[in-house]
Structures are given as C-alpha cells and as structure tokens.
Amino acid sequence: MRLLRCRTCGGDSRCGRAEVRRRPFPGRRWTGRYSANVMASGTADTSTAPPAGVTEGSRQVSRRRYFPAAEGLRALAAVAVLLYHVATNAGRDAAGFVYEPAAVLDMGVSVFFVLSGFLIYRPFAAASVGGAAVPSLRRFWWRRLLRIVPAYWAALSIMWLLGWVEVGDRPWRLYLFVQVYDPYTTLQGIVPAWSLDAEVAFYLLVPLWAAALRRIARGRVAVELGGVAVLFAAGYVSRAAFTASERVWAVTPAGDPVTMRAVSFTWLPNQIDLFAIGMAFAVLSVAAADGPLRDRLDRWARPAGLWWAAAAVAWLGFAYRWGEASLVEGHGGAWQIRAAAFGTVGLTLMVPVVFGGGGGLRRLLHARPVAWVGTVSYGLYLWHLDLLQEVPGWTGRPLAEHPFPALVLLTLALGLLAA
Question: Which one, of 144, 197, 147, 201, lies nearest residue 175 by Cα?
Fold first, then answer.
C-alpha cells in the first residue's frame, strides 16, 4: 500500500484528501473509489470495499461507522439481560449457584448504553475532530426513529391486545417514550422499555451537545474528551442527589411504595456516565486514525481475552460482594459502586471491539450466528420478559418448578422467534 501526498497541503492525509492506491496486478490500479464512498456517506459500500491488504490506516477509512464486533457485543448484552430476568423471575432455588452472578446481569443494559454512546456520537466526533461533514439532523433522527419506533410500537400493541401488559389510562406515554416520567406509568407496559426512554433522551441531547462542544473544541481532541468527562462526572453527581430522595414516586401492583431513589435509574441523568464512556471511545477512535497513537491503542487492545477477563472480574466481584438491587428499597449507598462496576464492564468489553484486531474472541463475535443474534437483539430485548412470564400459563407450572437451563433455552428460542 502507498499513501500519496496531498496536492493541496503536501501532507499525508491531514486535510482528508489523500488517496489510497495499490497495484494488485501489474498494469492495473485501484483508484481509491472506496475512500470516496466512505467520505461521502460515512459508511462502507460493500460493492466497492477495498481489496484484501488495504488497511484502515487512512483517515477516510477510519470514519467508517460499522464495527463488525459490535453486533456480537449486542448479542452478549441481550442474552445477559435475558439471563437476569430468567434468574430473578424463577428465583434463587430454581437458579441455584447461578443466581448470584445472574442477578446482576442487568448490567447488559449498561453495555447497550456504552455501545450506543459510541455508535451515536461517533459521526459527531468525526465532524468535530476528524474534519468530516456535520451529520444531517434530519437523517439522524429519521434513522433513529426507524431503528426503535416500529419494532417497539408493534411489540407494545400486540402485547396490549393479548392482555400481557398493563398500559393504564395513559397509553400515549408508553408510545412516546415518556412513561418513566409519570408515577402512574413508570411500571407499566414493556418493563425493559424503560431503557428506550433514556436512549431517546440521549438522542435529543447528542446533537445539541455536539454542536456546542464543536464550537468550543475547534478540532482539539483534549477539549472533546474534557466535554465527555463532564458528562461522565454528571452521572455521579446526579445519582448522589437522587440517593438522598425518599419521595414516593410509584406503587407496585402489590401496593408497595417505590421511592424516587429506587426508580430514577431509568432517567438519563443517572445513566449519562455510561453513554459518556462510549462517547470517549468515539472521540479516540476518530482522533487515532493512524500513526503512533493508533498503533499503541491497537497494541494495547489486541489481547482481547485479557480485557474480557477484567470485565468478568468486575462482574463477579460486584455480584458476590454487593449483589442485586431492590426496586422497592432502592440502590442506596451502593448505587455509585454499582455504576462504577457496570461502567467498568462496559469499558473493558468495548476496548477489543473498537481497537485491536484478530484473535479467537473477535472471530467469535464476528461469527454469523452470533452476529445474527446481535442483529435481532432489539426484538429479543423487547419480547423475552413477557414471553417468559407467560410460560406458567402455558405449562400449568410456576417458573420455579422448571429446570433453569430449559427455561433459559425456551425463553431464548421464543424471544428469537418473536424478534
């Protein structure tokens, strides 16, 4: 591969106009059409993908928005949430020794937030740090709506018609992703959909935050990372404020009061630090387009197994030391520790997804069955809990009387079919 000097600035891609060329066969030359497509659309066109041997060293290719291992990470996060719901609904006796580690696997939602922060913010980081075009807000919002609204509305409507979920007398709140802001609808509808409310709020925040920070940063990576650090710290400040709140926010179907402290985890300010971790990855992945920094980050990330081992240590350490949180009692003083542990898991899982290359773990994440589960993970996430809660009615036995492995496989199979 040979990187030509730019005729405009004389540099080696700093102004974004350099072309990557190679000679796969004598007398023939690839014209760099792939770079033009990436620059124009921000994503790779498979019909004009670069031939084998072309690396991602140029700034143009580094602006791609597709990271193959991300689908595998989505699959892992969705299955983690499924295991959490099966274990906590079936109970400690049914789950056995699996219960303790499974009861904190709601951290799969945290992984989703970190991944979302990375993928959503990266085009904006590319515009601020990498000199790419500012994303069209109309296109940004249209894609977000297509991504989350049709599948969620369909699932909610079908479950409502089947009588599986309670929507109360204010169903519009559930359809407009604002149910968590009303005491009467906080616990209604598709329960895992609370995370969609946080996602939608993040989608509202990102363009405004990116525009303000772009004016301040003016291409300076340190300022961009400083802005991300502010959001990260804001999550801890917000949780500290809500931890002290004993105000009753909602009442469970059993009549138990639920404090604002217990349910405010559903609001973006108390989850923004997780999104900020992903945003930091976005900035670094754009800033480290090539050169020594990129080489260093790739070298650090290459032993993917070590990073994921660190994630396992954070997960199991938190599970056996602090354990699950109570919706009624709230997260209390351990809330910040829980957030730190979940954030650590998300960070260490993301490193090999964004940087490095090769290795058995990445090949596993790229495998077609795993990637397919990642592709349909949103549907699996929406459907699995209510399908699980219908199993006793179908079998005539409570969940606790079903073999735990069989219950997991049944819920996974039904969820994938519904997805």
Answer: 197
Which amino acid is present at 106?
D
Contacts of 42 (CB under 8 A, 6+ apart): 63, 64, 65, 123, 126, 132, 135
Tell me how far CA of residue 388 lies from CA of 104, 301, 323, in angstroms. 18, 37, 23
Look up the pTM and report it: 0.82
Q: Are 82 and 405 in contact (CB under 8 A)?
A: no
Residue bearing tokens 């969940």 = 399
Nearest to 87 by CA among 383, 408, 319: 408
Q: Which residue has the tokens 């329960």?
A: 191
Task: Tell me the C-alpha to C-alpha distance, in Å, between residue 32 and each of 50, 190, 372.
Answer: 8, 48, 31
Contact by Cβ (8 Å): 328, 261: no
Distance CA 409, CA 346 (A): 25
Report DSSP state, residue 410: H
Instruction: Report yes or no: 42 and 123 within 8 Å, Cβ to Cβ.
Output: yes
CA distance 357 to 295: 11
Give the C-alpha separation, 214 to 342, whole Å: 29
Which of 106, 16, 79, 97 has its CA nearest to residue 326? 106
Q: Which ranges of 218-367 would DSSP assign to H, the alpha helix?
A: 221-243, 260-263, 272-287, 291-301, 304-321, 335-354, 360-366
Cα pseudo-dihedral 55, 61, 64, 68, rounded to 10: -10
pLDDT digits (tens, 9 = 90+) for 179-235: 988 877 877 899 999 999 999 999 999 999 999 999 898 888 999 999 999 999 999
Q: In the structure encoding, which two tokens stand for residue 122, read together?
A: 């990266």
Task: Express each pLDDT in 357-413 by its tens digit.
Answer: 778 888 898 899 999 999 999 999 999 999 999 999 999 999 999 999 999 999 999
Q: What would the two tokens of residue 53 be? A: 């041997």
The answer to whether 287 touches 221, Cβ cutoff 8 Å, is yes
Cα torsion 168, 170, 175, 181: sign: negative
